[in-house]
Model the fold of this input.
Amino acid sequence: MLAVKKYKFWFCTGSQDLYGDECLREVARHSQIIVDELNNSGLLPYEVVWKPTLITNELIRKTFNEANADEECAGVITWMHTFSPAKSWILGLQEYRKPLMHLHTQFNEEIPYDTIDMDFMNENQSAHGDREYGHIVSRMRIERKVVVGHWADEVVVKKIASWMRTAVGIMESSHIRVMRVADNMRNVAVTEGDKVEAQIKFGWEVDAYPVNEIAEAVEAVSASDTNALVDEYYEKYDILLEGRDAAEFRKHVAVQAQIELGFERFLQEKNYQAIVTHFGDLGGLKQLPGLAIQRLMEKGYGFGAEGDWKVAAMVRLMKVMTAGMKDAKGTSMLEDYTYNLVPGKEGILEAHMLEICPSIASGPISIKCQLLSMGNREDPARLVFTSKEGKGIATSLIDLGNRFRLIINDVTCKKAEKPMPKLPTATAFWTPQPNLYTGAEAWILAGGAHHTAFTYDLTAEQMGDWAAAMGIEAVYIDKDTKIRDFKKDLMLGEIVYR
Ligand code: MN
Done:
């Protein structure tokens, strides 16, 4: 996996000096305990850093600006332990530019019925102070995540953990650089889009290179480096000759090994984290990058086929958001290919010509070498496997001409009913929520693409929050989707995001 920064999140507690020093000492002590316990929970992907209690306009403004300037800080978690007059927060919030969480909690879980007095009430009044603070954030139209509940509750800690990954996605979006070594496939509409607007909205840099520049980088990879990588492939994967000559097969595989090394060196040298190719524009490359691209995706690079730079950036984004996740099940580009319409067994066979990330694989992974039905090159070697079962999300970012829309569909991945021995590609099989019929109808009404950025490891909420932070429309297709309501969502989007 490509390295992601060791991000940290600042924990800022709000109060004021009306209640005396003793109260403020307790406020600080409580927030330190919360920070320690959050860090000790083992549930957070990133560290929380305690900051001194914010009680004045000056300190609030200074702290938010320090958070802006600190490259390791990916967001601020705010909580009003007592009442903190919210006009004090205006200037700081105005100047703050990173992800913001409002943790609406309180130190004690239970009302201390026997001992509670007015001192206790004044010291522990987040129910009161967090409403004052929430009001100003809403009035200022600032996008933030609100999490409600006791800070020691595992559900609350997991919500913080989930949002941390969203926040890192927001921070890292502007570090995504997509290399295009081919333009979008001729005449295809849905993979097109406004690259300038994408850079304004998401921070993505999307640049073109002549395909032969990267082909030269591939040519420059030595035979010994290539052979060493082929040996690694032969160690790691099952080889399915299917009647082909073993020596000739290995030569085909070696072409992909050389592409993997050449592409990776070229991407690293030029500092790109995602790439698109196109089977119709391969210049000096001997094969369509198949196995090579599959391996690069597994290492954390984004990829889009047929010049689809939006999917390439989305796959990279989702790889970054899931970086370092224990028990991650995988993230890949996929394509809606063929349906199973048998009642009770409905689903979509997901595949592509070649380029599916092995991070989603379940069971053995094989190398096959077969004719590609499109293009005019050698038969490319590719990794073939089936994918894990379980819940995931399929996303499609589309350009509607005047704006972007992110479509997010909850899907249930299953084993295909039978093996498909003649199919020379990796596959997944899923049923969209709420069912194939409503799911596909909603997807088509929303204008969703055939290419998707898919992951088992993020939720619709996380991707929707990312979209909100980017200022774009998100629509959800899930267990609650009804077409009549969904059409109203789309109509509302036309008004809000025009
Ligand atoms: Mn395609």
